[in-house]
Each structure stands twice: as C-alpha cells, then as structure tokens.
C-alpha cells in the first residue's frame, strides 16, 4: 500500500490518545472521515492539529452559509495553490452535497455554469477581488479560504498528491461514490463552537471574524503556527517574514537567485520560505538538509506551519486592505 506521508511517520490513528484521539472522534462525527490524512499528518503537533481542525470545522462545516458555496471557494483556493490533493478532496465533497455536475466541471478545470458559483471560484483563486457573498456570511467564507491556504501548504509539503491509494480519485465514478458515502454527514447541521474545547493555544481573533467561534479558532491556529519560528535563528525567521511580506501573494518563488536561501547554508529558512510561497516545489533534498537530530517530525510540522501561516497572513493583509478601502 502506498504511504501518503512524504517525510513523517505519524502514529496510527487507532493508537491515538488524549486530544489527538478527541479530534479524530470529532472528525468522524462532523466530517465523516476519522482518519483524514490532512489531519493525521499534523498529529505530531497537537496544537496545530486542534487549531487547524477548529478553523475548518467552524468555517466550512458549521454556520449558515451554503456548504456548496464554501466548497467552491475552497476548490478555488486549492487550484490557485496548485494542490491537486485538495482540489480532488473538494470535488468529492461537492459530490457529497449532491452537486455532481458542478463537482465534475471543477475537476475538469472548467468554469461552473452558475454565475454565483463562478464568482465564488474566482474569489477563491484571488481574494483581492470583490467578495461575492453577503457581509453576514463573510466570517465563514473568509475563514474557509484562509484555512485552506494553510492546509494546502501542509498537504503540498508533507503528503503525496494522491488522495486515494493508487490515484484512484482520477476516476469520476470513484469521486462520485466517495462523495455519496459522505452525503449524510455533509447534510448534518452542526452546532457552532463545539471544537473550541479542543484548542491548546489562544490568540487574538481577527477583525474579519467578528464575534464568532471562527475567530477564536483562527487565533489559536495562528498562535500555534508561529511557534515554528523558534526553530530558526532570529535572522532566518526575519528573512522568511520579510520575503513573504514583500510577496504579492500570487507569484511563485523562483528556485534560482538570491531570493531563495541556499540549501546547505540556511536549510531551515529555505524550507519555511518554500512552504509559504511554493510548497509544491519542496523536494527530498530540501527536507534532508534540515531534518536531522535533534529535529523530529514534530519540528518539521511546526516549521512548515510557520511558513504556511506567514503566507496566510500575507493573503489576509491583502483582504483586510481591500475591505478598508471600501469601508
């Protein structure tokens, strides 16, 4: 059987204890997939696992906004970030909502027929464009988009591209059947806030989240992800932050030139910066140059998360600036 984990060896979910086991249990009930590799890969760092799950649950799964609309946004984000694993996941989840034709149009790289869905997909790809949803639903849509900017980077850095063994997701029938198996769970109405008791960190809620559980969850994830900066020297952490702050949020990071730190001289800064700006370009040599004792799986996940949250904050800043312009 193909192992989906590129550089880490997570404990089997069946042997999980404590808060990790609690997250898996809530995943099974609320998401319908108790061993989703997207979350299993974070299990070496429980604060990241709980924060990521909480933001996704409270924004994508709970709330009043259309689940189909939020899945379309998440697919747009994943397309922009070149994350085939996540694009497939959202097409499967669109099948679960019953929107089979929409799911397959996105899977084929085509535009949705419905104008509203086209606008949501375009906004997911570029959040600097006008928001195509009511202001009251903004926390759910923005939270969904930002958490998948984070998740895409974790997945592209640490998992293989195949969502299912052997790449079976390339078949329409497999995508459809997988989606239908989740249909009952997708249609459940969840009580907002039930993931918050799992959180292990805390931080200030962003203004865009208003007074919602999404803000509490996002603050916790941000705090947990920034812990990864402690794995770098002050100089290297500053380099990563400065490079991402100067980035337009779209252009891929060049693999050659002064902008990307040398693999041998500054491997940690290089890995974090790739995670932020081009996670799909991380190769075995990049990880091997940094991942040696005393560093562990726990450390690698945190370093990738640091790069990922820097990128999320850059995209969030663009979004906030646009909101202020039109206030």
Written description of the protein model:
By secondary structure, the chain is mainly alpha-helical. Helix content is 58%, strand content 0%.
Query: Based on CA inertia axes, which overall geometry fits?
Result: globular
| Count of helical stretches | 15
Share of helix among residues? 55-70%
Most strands sheet: none
DSSP strand content = under 5%
Distance between the termini: 53 Å
Gyration radius, rounded:
18 Å
The helix/strand class is mainly alpha
Number of strands: 0
Residue-averaged pLDDT: 92
The secondary-structure element order is HHHHHHHHHHHHHHH
Query: Are there runs of 5+ residues with pLDDT below 50, and where?
Result: none
Question: What is this structure, in a nutshell?
Answer:
The chain is mainly α and 327 residues long. Helix content is 58%, strand content 0%. Helix 4 crosses helix 7 (115-125).
Supply database-style keywords.
327 residues, 15 helices, mainly alpha, 0% strand
Layout of strands and helices, then pairs:
Elements: H1 18-31, H2 37-40, H3 46-61, H4 67-80, H5 84-97, H6 100-107, H7 115-125, H8 138-158, H9 172-181, H10 183-186, H11 213-226, H12 234-246, H13 267-277, H14 284-290, H15 297-325
Helix pairs in contact: 1-3, 3-8, 3-11, 4-5, 4-7, 4-8, 5-6, 5-9, 8-15, 11-15, 12-13, 12-15, 13-14, 13-15
């Amino acid at each position: 059987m193909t192992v989906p984990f590129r550089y880490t060896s997570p404990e089997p979910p069946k042997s999980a204890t404590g808060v990790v086991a609690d997250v898996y249990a809530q995943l099974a009930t609320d998401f319908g997939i108790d061993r989703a590799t997207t979350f299993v890969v974070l299990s070496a760092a429980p604060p990241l696992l709980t924060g990521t799950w909480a933001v996704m649950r409270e924004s994508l799964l709970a709330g009043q906004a259309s689940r189909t609309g939020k899945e379309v946004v998440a697919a747009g984000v994943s397309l922009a970030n070149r994350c085939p694993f996540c694009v497939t996941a959202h097409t499967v989840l669109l099948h679960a909502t019953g929107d089979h034709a929409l799911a397959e149009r996105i899977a084929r790289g085509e535009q949705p027929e419905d104008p509203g869905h086209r606008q949501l997909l375009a906004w997911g790809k570029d959040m600097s464009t006008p928001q195509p949803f009511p202001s009251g639903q903004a926390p759910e849509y923005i939270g969904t988009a930002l958490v998948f900017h984070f998740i895409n980077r974790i997945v592209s850095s640490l998992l293989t591209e195949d969502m299912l063994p052997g790449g079976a997701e390339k078949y329409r029938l497999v995508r459809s059947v997988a989606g239908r198996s989740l249909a009952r769970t997708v249609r459940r109405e969840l009580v907002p806030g039930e993931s918050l008791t799992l959180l292990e960190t805390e931080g200030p809620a962003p203004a865009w989240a208003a007074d919602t559980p999404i803000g509490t969850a996002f603050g916790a994830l941000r705090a947990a992800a920034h812990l990864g900066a402690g794995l770098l020297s002050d100089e290297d952490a500053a380099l990563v932050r400065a490079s991402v702050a100067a980035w337009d949020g779209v252009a891929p990071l060049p693999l050659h030139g002064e902008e990307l730190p040398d693999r041998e001289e500054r491997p940690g800064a290089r890995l974090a910066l790739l995670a932020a700006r081009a996670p799909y370009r991380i190769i075995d040599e990049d990880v091997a140059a940094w991942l040696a004792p005393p560093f562990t799986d726990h450390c690698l996940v945190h370093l990738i998360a640091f790069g990922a949250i820097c990128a999320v904050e850059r995209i969030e800043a663009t979004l906030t600036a646009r909101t202020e312009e039109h206030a």
